Amino acid sequence: MVTKDLAEEREGYEQASAEAPEQRALAEERGRRGEAQDAELRDLRRQAGETAAELGQVRGHFEALRGQVEDLRDARARIEAERDQARAALQEAHGEAQERARRIEALGGAT
């Protein structure tokens, strides 16, 4: 019985010894893959950080453009108001000039 147990133990040891290099190689490969995945994850995190920074810059530019558009709208409204005032003043001056011309004609015809 002891011999049988010893034989089984020896067989298990020999089998484990035979499998050990293969297991070691598999473990090393998993380790390399894990390191590669860790490196890839670090790179992805770095890229995500860069992308977030770029997005922040784009948002800043967008907000600046939004402010410029608002300023341009205000300027356009002021220009349109000034144009309307100038047009009204011109029409008023034109009407007054026509009225003077009629008076002058009336005075000239009365003489």
From TrEMBL:
Bias type Basic and acidic residues, positions: 1-13, 21-40, 93-105
Domain of life of the organism encoding this protein: Bacteria
Region (Disordered): 1-40, 90-111
Protein name: Uncharacterized protein
High-level lineage: Bacteria, Pseudomonadati, Pseudomonadota, Gammaproteobacteria, Chromatiales
